[in-house]
Amino acid sequence: ARWSLARPTSSSGANMPFTTANITQIETDQPSVYAFRLTRHLGEEEVEAMAQFMNDVFDRAEASKVDMVMIFDGYEGTSIGPIFDTDVIKSRWRSLSSVGKYAVVGAPEPAKAMIGTLDKLLPVHAAAFDTIAIHDAWAFVGALPTDGTLTGKPA
After folding, report:
1. Which residues are CB-neighbours of 71 under 8 A, at least 6 positions away?
2. Alpha helices in 8-155 (DSSP H)
3. Is-contact 67 141, C-beta < 8 A?
4. How do the residues of the chain divide into helix, strand and coil, expressed in percent and rounded to 5?
5. pLDDT per residue as tens digits for the range 102-135
6. Which of 7, 25, 47, 152 has the fewest Cβ atoms nearer than 10 Å?
7. pTM for the predicted model, two decimal places
8. Max CA distance (Å), the chain
9. How far is CA 151 from CA 27, 29, 45, in A?
């Protein structure tokens, strides 16, 4: 089942964070900062659902930019199928004009090298941080998680 663009709500009517089996949104103290913890292996439906979610965020942000934090925690890779999904392709292209800062924490070495190169070539200000420097990643985007954990991982 695909994630619905209608954000899930609690019994009080408040928006619930985006969550799948291996992607957890981390609520932040800044409404324009979207943070996620990625664990284990990301399946096709999860990647497509996150792309739908971010396209919805980009629609609501209109002309203003959002910042993103991606925390890799026990990440094992992503299925290849989603790279051809329309929502995934659309969200990646839209991120070029809709994301201001992009912080990646604990990414695999090849991804860290790519982020450093892309930061020089693309209009998105991107930076990769080692897990131990997670405080620096949050400072980079000017936000903190509201749960006090820095990683969105329950204690």
Report:
1. 26, 35, 36, 37, 38, 105, 106, 134, 137, 151, 152
2. 44-61, 86-98, 109-121, 134-141
3. yes
4. 40, 30, 35
5. 999 998 888 888 888 878 888 889 999 999 999 9
6. 7
7. 0.81
8. 45
9. 10, 14, 23
